[in-house]
Amino acid sequence: MTWRQTDMMFIGNYAELDEYEVEASIFGYLVEIMGVFDPETNLMNFDTLDYAPFFHVPKLIIEQSKDLKKWSRVKLSEPLRKEYQWPQELSIEMEAELKESTFYRVKIEEE
Q1: What pLDDT does 111 receive?
Q2: How far apart are CA 37 and CA 43, in angstroms?
Q3: Domain that holds residue 37
Q4: Checking CA distances to 94, which of 18, 33, 74, 111 falls within 20 to 30 Å?
Q5: Is residue 1 in a domain?
Q6: Looking at the 3D structure of the chain, how many domains does it have?
Q7: Would you say residue 65 lies in a domain?
Q8: Rounded-to-integer distance, Cα 28 and Cα 79, Å
Q9: pLDDT score recorded for residue 17
C-alpha cells in the first residue's frame, strides 16, 4: 500500500448565504462548494469534509479606572492573537499591578 498526501491551495471567493451556510467558488472551476456550520459540534462541513473553523479577533482595548470617570489604557503583555477557535477561550495578559478599587473594561474597536 502507498499513501501520498499533499496540501494544495486554491484562490477563490466565498459568499455567506445564511447564518450557517457559505458558498465557495474557486477561480478556474465552475463548481460551487457549499459549507454548512453546525454550532453544536463546532464543525464546518465543506465538500463532505469537517473542519474546525477559526474566528477573527476584533481589536480590543483594555482600560482601567479608579473612579469609573477617568479611564486609562492598559498595556498588554503580548499582542492579541488574530484569530481563535470557538469554544476555546481568548485569554489576555495585562501589564498592570493589582491595586485596590481598580475597575477594568474592555472596548471593542469597530473596523
Answers
A1: 65
A2: 6
A3: 12-53
A4: 111
A5: no
A6: 2
A7: yes
A8: 38
A9: 92
Residue 4 resides in a domain:
no
- Residues 64 and 56: their CA atoms lie apart, in Å, by 25
The cell numbers describing 13, all together, are: 471567493
* Cell (9 digits) for 31: 463548481
pLDDT tens digit at each of 111 positions of the chain: 666 667 777 788 888 999 899 888 888 777 788 899 998 888 889 878 898 888 888 888 899 998 999 999 988 888 888 888 877 788 888 876 776 788 999 999 876
Cα 63 to chain centroid, rounded: 22
Q: How many residues does the chain have?
A: 111
- CA torsion 64-66-72-74 (nearest 10°) is -30
The DSSP string of 63-87 is EEESSSSS-EEPPBSSPPPSEE-TT
